[in-house]
User: Fold these one by one.
Assistant:
Number 1:
Amino acid sequence: MVDISTLEKMDGTLLEKAIKEAVAVNRHYLAPFTDSFRYSHSEDNFYAPSENVEWTTGFWTGELWLSYELSGDEAFKDAALKQVDSFYDRIVRKIDVEHHDMGFLYSPSCVAAYKLTGSEKARKAALMAADNLISRFQEKGQFIQAWGKVGDPKEYRLIIDCLLNLPLLFWATETTGDGKYRDIAERHFSTAIGCVLRPDDSTYHTYYFDPETGKPDRGVTAQGNRNGSAWARGQAWGIYGSALAYRHTGSDKALDVFRRSLSFFLAHLPSDVIPYWDFDFDNPSDEPRDSSALAIAICAMLEAADDIGGEEGNELRDKAGRLMAPLYEKCAVRNPEESNGLLLHGTYARKSQWNTCRNRGVDECNLWGDYYYLEALRRLKGKWEPYW
Ligand code: GLY
């Protein structure tokens, strides 16, 4: 366990340096990644181009919006708006949208575009994505089905990651005045935290329901080390998802889940701070790290710091700044020769003897790691209107 109070904090000078370096890397690679998206993770720290497919492309567009906010450089805005056209096309033509990850795709791309530029096309695209997301809600069980064909008994489950898809629904109600989106978000949240959070404050990655009765059945991992372990990124999704639910609902339950899941996460960080991909592992271990889990947790702490305020808010902000310094020192890309991503040492999926994964993006950059690292820098710089 690491004593966070002994870590040196990222001060204003280091923050400005980190922002400058990150924006410079994104500017350097803007041209080849304007008409093209990026693959979900790098190979030898360099991303290959990709079509607008998978659950991850919204993070790259989100990075463009953050880079625009951090630099004022209109080239980022122009590129991001071009990509909004692609997201509009994707949801209209239903390209690779038969899953729940509408929030990951459409919040940092299209909700951000609408908030920053007032683009009606972006608003329309994000609302179509929200409609697609609520179409996966299962009355029997009261949850949004994560993967597969809606109603497939073999896929009758939710996954913790979905908590980050819910802000799209809160936003959809805010912008339309139609309460149906918020209602489904609240019902899913309540079901999800009722089953994924364990008594020791660790979390299950996925949870199955009985398709006949809707009763919660069993917790199973997909990307964690084993069913009963705490997958580091899953835990981070739980922390940020509950912080955002608290922001949107003010619910005591959401705040309680945030505090509990965060306390487990912080108590299980290794002494050099960067989490292993699953909390089954502690130093010394040869297992790979997942830097993205820490970036997500830092964003959650900074979000909750604003929403909770007072002494607890100050403490959260202070701890986030102390965790950010080692994240920068050990994982940040400093120049475009090193990588075309921003955050090294992430792990998309690691095969274990118990999970169903193949090795994917192990000790590499991944798009969400880059995005949340940049979001954390933006949040540390000062007040920010979240895309979530
Ligand atoms: N949402 C999928 C993942 O975190 O890998």
Number 2:
Amino acid sequence: MNAEELAKKRANYLSFLKKQPKGFLYLDEKQKPVAAKHAAKNADERAKNADEIDALNCNYRDCTACPLGSQGRTQVVFGKGLAEATLMFVGEGPGKDEDLQGAPFVGRSGKLLTQIIEAMGLSRESVYISNVVKCRPPENRTPLPNESSTCKDLLLLKEIAIIKPKIICTLGATATKALLGDETKITASRGMFVEWNGTLVLPTYHPAYLLRNPAEKRTVWEDMKKIMAKLAELEA
Ligand code: SF4
Ligand code: URA
């Protein structure tokens, strides 16, 4: 084996090791059943989170608790993704495409959000994506404060309590205000972690804003790098 082959083999082996669960290197025969039990418990917990999200959403399929329930929505658009995600994105509310397809962030803003998530080395399936209000506001207007607060209490806060993400990235002013308070300005809070109920919240610009102001994509990318570094730190 020449030096190049050896280096390649070493790199492959290191990458294999990195993919293994914590403690992999140290498992002896006695520890293996303990690790297997731990993995099984995690699988059970995963199923439990997904079931809890389904059970929660099930109660709100025909929700009319706020005015958006009777202003022309096609369907209630629930959050989507991994029910035990460590990273969660929260947007404002469904637009036309989301209202028709029944999934969050699937239109133009959604495509950009997907690109951002993939540039972070993640996938939409490995994070959780939700909105403050689950029904499309007419003409895509900003949700009114009573709509935001009603839907937040009925769904968003409960989703967060089930998923327990380590980091929540709020996209734009509506999501940032919904979690951090009405007086929070997106321009002042953007790019900084705030501790909120035991979770770190990092506000950034909404992808729709980036479509209008492409130069700010760079700013958002700096924010995403902060999230990646923090996730690595929290998972170390
Ligand atoms: Fe219910 Fe939320 Fe839809 Fe309002 S926006 S009707 S609270 S699901
Ligand atoms: N904008 C949002 O805030 N949420 C979506 O789901 C789509 C666009």
Number 3:
Amino acid sequence: MAKATNLGFPRIGERRELKKATEAYWAGESSLDALRASGAALRRTNWAKQKAAGLDVIPSNDFSFYDGMLDMACLLGNVPSRFDWNGGHAGLDLAFAMARGTDTAIACEMTKWFDTNYHYLVPEFRADTTFTLAGSKVFDEFAEAERLGIHTRPVLIGPATYLALGKVADGSGMDKLSLADRLIPVYVEILERLAAQGADWVQLDEPVFALDLSEAQCEMIDAAYAALAQVKDIRLMVASYFGELRDNQVLFTGLPVAGLHIDAVRGAKEAAAIAATIGPETVLSLGLVDGRNIWKTDLAAARETLAACQARVETDRLELAPACSLLHCPVTLRNETRLSHAILDWLAFAEEKLGEIVFLAKAADGQVDEMHAADNKRVMHRRRHSELIHSDLVKRRVGGLTPADYRRRSGYAARASQQSAKLNLPLLPTTSIGSFPQTIDVRRARADHKKGRLSDSDYDVFLKRQIDDAVTLQENMGFDMLVHGEFERNDMVEYFGEKLEGYAFTRLGWVQSYGSRYVKPPIIYGDVQRPEAMTVKWSKYAQSRTDKPMKGMLTGPVTMVQWAFVRDDQPCSATVRQVALAIRDEICDLERAGLAAIQCDEAAFREGLPLRRADWDDYLDWATAAFRLAAGGVADATQIHTHMCYSEFNDIIEAIATMDADCISIETSRSHMELLDAFVAFDYPNEIGPGVYDIHSPRVPTVDEMTTLLDKAAQVLPIDRLWVNPDCGLKTRGWAEVKPALANMVEAARRLRGRYSQTG
Ligand code: GLN
Ligand code: ZN
């Protein structure tokens, strides 16, 4: 019999119970016991849901109050010394301290989990790092489930992934892999203890198999699993996910373990070949249900992959699963009362996906639920042919695009002279990245308007007053290029998505981003188009209040797509092109409305990079093309800005140059301009605004500090192509620190300007 299994269930709760519980605890409003009880209630609910759905294998330790990598660090006693850990039990408060920092210790770094929008806490390694069994969460949760009558398969991050995702934090340049000898014995101990507790299987997550692995990594994996395989009375299910195995296939299928899980969604093409090469006893877990998108599975297509694998592996050795943990999906469709029925019909969140897994497991056994199959077939057909998805207008427009649409009329040099004639900016012009503080007033007015407590016209008046104040403030400070402040926006993607056709929004479709921070990504379900202008009203109004140039402010096409659940019925490159056309129309409308400069933010440009190097060029091609298409419709004299909230550009600088924005602003203040290196080395041809004000901190930088930073930038880049701006938008800051910081920034620019114009 094939088994229906799961790799992990969303931990946040149907109504964000986890967020409420953890934040109440952090705020000192509830006790640790109360928090623990909330966690237990969530786990109990989640196990019960999975059991009721008919799963044969249910995971434990997939729950976390913050993050699974962090839990792993605690379990392994891998706690940086600054947290004053005494070597005893590494519990929840220690984990929170590591995640959030304390008065005396800065938090561990956080970064993106592969190519998802989930963030994990980065393990820290030093030459003297040791590991010791220090946590008990995995054992406690296994026992807790047993007491509830649910025999679970505990989940751990595998050793290869744990080492690969950590960073060497002591500057020693040590080889992380050399830690394997210290690490593996603790894994052995953990497995032995789970075996003694009565666990018969353990799932080891090894998504590193979807990455390019070095030879040394492969050797480490070989040795590590040879050691883990020695543990008696426990079977290991090693889970690869987030992509194809490709050249790692031989290593993976050769692991001396009882079970192997593969991502048969992204890796559908490989599945049968892998099935053919696994050992004669090995259990194959087929991840046929997409764990990170929200569409119903095409069950007929999934069954074809299944059949191809069944031809090579006996059904008894098959498990059916989601491709990866369902952590990256919202919890349930049950509360989505505002989505149209047609769209609702196409969706499956985590709970609904469990049903698909059970269906497939039964189908593998020859018990096809024909009603379910027929219904799914009808849904797939309806979705494919739905008028909601297809717009002839959009398709015709995309079809008619020519290479000229992806190009500005002239090259940068010719544009720059026209722009400088039009804008008449001083040397080192000052500007900001877009948003100003979203004060309680701003958020309250937006909420009141949304709930109908504030009329459209009153809200209008309110927003105009905010813009007026922002304009006056910037004029008084002496800014050269102004922004309107983005007071009308909740979020840089949601605001635009709500105004575009082809986008849908859920009520409670939350997904954990990090800790208690969740996001509610929009769903791009159909051809995207812009029924009417989205920002022109505000930008035009703002420009009417000043003689200084006002910068129009938009989110770029790549970011719009990257931070959404995207269509799976066409490639991302096609979806992004449609979004680019909508943004292009907005840019042209802004130009027509009198905006001489328009910024198009691409905060998610870099994070869209595929996991494998071999796939980068293809991505960079369509991503840069999308930006160029969005920006390509304006006159030479209109200045296009872009902004990216980071500065690791070394490996993509060529693509950044290909985007051909007239000016790019980036984050550089914390690295003391070191991160400009890529731009210097590459001889970046256009204008750059290296951030001089770290907006992640409430600290007000002094004039001197910012002058020093600017000076540094001016040493390595042509001064006439330098801008002066903060690292990023200011929406999360308060006016109390923003005002003096911006005033200092403008003063720093003035000082340097004086100095450089004297020396000529
Ligand atoms: N214009 C946006 C803002 O200032 C940019 C935000 C971002 O890059 N994340 O808020
Ligand atoms: Zn930013």
